[in-house]
Design brief:
Elements (H helix, E strand, L loop, with lengths): L8 H5 L2 E9 L2 E3 L1 H15 L6 H14 L7 E8 L16 E8 L7 E10 L14 H12 L4 E6 L4 E4 L3 E6 L2 E4 L10 H13 L3 E3 L5 H5 L2 E6 L3 E8 L2 E2 L4 H9 L5
Parallel strand pairs: 5-6, 5-12, 9-10
Antiparallel strand pairs: 1-2, 1-3, 3-4, 6-7, 8-9, 8-11, 11-12, 12-13
Helix pairs in contact: 2-3
Length: about 260
């Protein structure tokens, strides 16, 4: 991979997007879904969108270059606005930069311990629903969780509603219903989020989006996280609330078992 120059707008301003894909069993898992999300995000940010095949090609090349074709790997594809433009203004002739890296990835097997992060997400910003290069709020939320002895941070938006976690979508179970924050809460439009909701529909499980505060998690029968690297990860504890294993969480985990 070429070195990123010092005038790259992604480096200087966070002007760009990324996707994290799973490589397992000798191929990208849900690769086209991730590529399409990057293309949609580029449209929101006003960036020329890369071709779907180019996104997948750089991802596969990164795995090969890292010698991980027979391994389980996390593949990060990055799209920046390229070089040029002093300050905030993009150059007239925008030449985006697309590249990827790959690293070995071990799936966590233990249920997660969560805390509520003090950092809030701005649901009014269109970037709250995208995987932009300006991810410092997520970094700080995860840092806060680790400092508290937890695995992950639950993130609220500026209205106090649940938005997700630092690096995954958030779900909870109320009785027989599956619940998750809506996109307008500042929730990432997650690839595994969509897969979990589709699995619930297939199983005939009532599923809904809800603007809810932390009290919803305290009252829930179960809570879990979902993203493309961890699949479905049950939550064991949030604050002083402990959760027992739940059959529906296990069933949904099996339905979207794209990780190994």
């Amino acid at each position: 991979m070429e070195a990123v120059p010092l005038d790259d707008r992604g480096l200087l301003l966070g002007d760009g997007l990324f996707e994290t894909l799973l490589w397992s069993g000798g191929d990208l898992i849900l690769g086209e879904d991730h590529a399409r999300r990057m293309i949609r995000g580029a449209g929101v940010l006003g960036l020329p969108a890369p071709a779907l095949d180019d996104i997948l090609a750089v991802a596969r090349a990164a795995v090969a270059d890292a010698g991980l074709t027979d391994a389980r790997a996390a593949v990060r594809v990055t799209l920046t606005a390229g070089s040029g433009g002093r300050g905030l203004d993009r150059p007239a002739d925008l030449l985006p930069r697309l590249f990827a890296t790959a690293a070995s990835s071990v799936r966590p097997t233990a249920p997660a311990v969560l805390v509520i992060a003090g950092h809030r997400r701005n649901a009014a910003s269109p970037t709250s629903r995208l995987k932009t290069l300006a991810y410092l709020d997520n970094v700080l939320a995860r840092r806060e969780a680790l400092a508290a002895g937890a695995d992950e941070a639950v993130v609220l938006n500026t209205d106090g509603h649940l938005a997700g976690s630092a690096a995954a979508n958030l779900f909870w179970i109320e009785g027989e219903a599956l619940v998750t924050p809506p996109l307008e809460a500042g929730c990432l439009d997650g690839i595994l989020r969509a897969a979990v909701l589709a699995a619930a529909v297939k199983f005939g499980v009532p599923a809904r989006e809800s603007l809810a505060g932390p009290d919803a998690l305290a009252a829930a029968d179960a809570v879990f996280l979902a993203n493309s690297l961890i699949g479905v990860r049950p939550v064991r504890r949030l604050g002083q609330r402990d959760y027992a294993p739940h059959a529906l969480v296990d069933r949904l985990a099996g339905a979207v078992a794209v990780v190994s």
